[in-house]
Amino acid sequence: MTFLKKQSIKQTASKTADHSVSNNQITEGVIWKQLLIFFFPILFGTFFQQLYNTADAMIVGKFVGKEALSAVGGTTGTLINLLVGFFVGMSSGAAVVVSQFYGAKEDQQVQKSVHTSFCLALAGGVTLLVIGEIFTPAAIRAMGAPEEILGYSVTYLRIYFLGIIGNLVYNMGAAILRAVGDSKRPLYFLVASCLTNIALDLLFVVCFHMEVAGA
User: Residues 43-61: what's their mean pLDDT?
Assistant: First the structure.
């Protein structure tokens, strides 16, 4: 049974690779057009990824108050941008390895590097989750946050850390897709997730009055 599952995974990966090869020939045709087609989804994806925290700040600022706005858009926003930058950098490094093996058509090495990348993402996510939940108050105080926004900041950042594994896994998966020439599907996922985030912000903050925790 295990052997059949492995064979099925290999066949699926092979079909995906063939599909990517036939639809993502970046180095063929008019190069500057191919590069722009590949680049703009990445650009818009970066915008939507930053929009998560911005939407949270705007909604809590309007419906909760200036202290909540300061907590979500200021102190925690700086730490979140640092974490997002860390994720993007780590996943970009993994994507370099995947793209090299993918370009060389070394399927087994591609599978190994993809599996290793996701294991790294999971392990890193669990580590950051534990560290974040324990040291969030100390980190907020070290940044000089005023006492009146300390509670909001700790609440927001601790809940953010609860989803850190999913965030890291997404960034790793998106980088791997881009490494094989697919920059559109990560963008579609981000657009859908960002719109969902805004809708749920409004539901939990405005309707359920959960304040910063709702965002």
Answer: 82
Summarize pLDDT for 89-132 with one digit per residue, the tens: 888 889 999 989 998 999 999 999 999 999 999 999 999 999 99
Cα–Cα dist 71/59, whole Å: 12
Listed residue (97, 91, 92, 99) closest to 179, CA to CA:
99
- For the chain, the straight-line distance linking the first and the last C-alpha, in angstroms and rounded, comes to 44
With 50 as the cut, is the pLDDT of residue 19 above it? no
Q: How far apart are CA 164 and CA 180, in angstroms?
A: 25
Q: What share of the chain is helix, strand, coil (3-state, %, to 5)?
A: 90, 0, 10
Amino acid in position 194: C
Sign of CA dihedral 27, 29, 31, 33: negative
CA distance 31 to 48: 26
Residue 2 burial (CB count, 10 A): 6
| pTM of the full structure | 0.77
Amino acid at 214: G
Sign for the pseudo-dihedral over CA of 17, 23, 27, 28: positive
**Token pair recorded at residue 103:** 């370009």
Spatial CB neighbours of 15, under 8 Å, sequence gap ≥ 6:
none
